[in-house]
Amino acid sequence: MDARRRRMLRAASCALAAALVSCCLPLAAFARTDGGDAVLGCSAADLGISEERLPGIDASHAALMDEEGTLWYGRAAGERAQIASLTKIMTAAVAAEHLDAGDRIVVTPEAAAVGESSAGLAAGDEMSFGDALKAVLTASGNDAASAVA
C-alpha cells in the first residue's frame, strides 16, 4: 500500500472515529434504559435485571453481538432501522482502501438523482476521490457516496 493510500485510509479511519465519538459523547447525559431490553435473548425484566443495572444507551435500537452471532444485548434488535450516515462513513472507509486521493470519480445520473442529503453534484461531474471523500464526509452527500461506490 503506497503512502498516499495509507494517509487517505488513516484520514477516513480518523473521520469515522471522530464521527462515532461525537455522536456518543453529547448523548451520555441523556442516556436512557428500557425494561424491554433483551439480555441473551430474554427480556431484562424476565431475568430480574433492574433498569438501573442496564446500560444507559440513548438509542431506539441497539445490538451487541459476538463473532459467533450470539446477541448479548439488544434493544429493538429484531426491528428494521435506518442507519443514516453510517452507510456513508463505511462507503468512504471501504473506498479509501481501494482508491487513491487523485483517482477520478465521475458522477452517474443515478448517483446525482439520489436526493435526500446531497452535496449538489450533477450527472457528469468529475472530481478526484479526495474531493469526493470530502463531499461524503463533510456535506454528508448521498450523491457523492453513491458516485464513490
Automatic annotation (TrEMBL):
<dbReference type="InterPro" id="IPR018044">
    <property type="entry name" value="Peptidase_S11"/>
</dbReference>
<keyword id="KW-0378">Hydrolase</keyword>
<keyword id="KW-0961">Cell wall biogenesis/degradation</keyword>
<keyword id="KW-0121">Carboxypeptidase</keyword>
<keyword id="KW-0732">Signal</keyword>
<feature type="active site">
    <location>
        <position position="140"/>
    </location>
</feature>
<dbReference type="Pfam" id="PF00768">
    <property type="entry name" value="Peptidase_S11"/>
</dbReference>
<keyword id="KW-0645">Protease</keyword>
<keyword id="KW-0133">Cell shape</keyword>
<dbReference type="InterPro" id="IPR012338">
    <property type="entry name" value="Beta-lactam/transpept-like"/>
</dbReference>
<feature type="domain" description="Peptidase S11 D-alanyl-D-alanine carboxypeptidase A N-terminal">
    <location>
        <begin position="54"/>
        <end position="149"/>
    </location>
</feature>
<feature type="active site" description="Proton acceptor">
    <location>
        <position position="88"/>
    </location>
</feature>
<dbReference type="InterPro" id="IPR001967">
    <property type="entry name" value="Peptidase_S11_N"/>
</dbReference>
<dbReference type="GO" id="GO:0006508">
    <property type="term" value="P:proteolysis"/>
</dbReference>
<feature type="signal peptide">
    <location>
        <begin position="1"/>
        <end position="31"/>
    </location>
</feature>
<feature type="active site" description="Acyl-ester intermediate">
    <location>
        <position position="85"/>
    </location>
</feature>
<comment type="similarity">
    <text>Belongs to the peptidase S11 family.</text>
</comment>
<dbReference type="GO" id="GO:0071555">
    <property type="term" value="P:cell wall organization"/>
</dbReference>
<dbReference type="GO" id="GO:0009252">
    <property type="term" value="P:peptidoglycan biosynthetic process"/>
</dbReference>
<keyword id="KW-0573">Peptidoglycan synthesis</keyword>
<dbReference type="GO" id="GO:0008360">
    <property type="term" value="P:regulation of cell shape"/>
</dbReference>
<dbReference type="InterPro" id="IPR006311">
    <property type="entry name" value="TAT_signal"/>
</dbReference>
<protein>
    <submittedName>
        <fullName>D-alanyl-D-alanine carboxypeptidase</fullName>
    </submittedName>
</protein>
<dbReference type="GO" id="GO:0009002">
    <property type="term" value="F:serine-type D-Ala-D-Ala carboxypeptidase activity"/>
</dbReference>
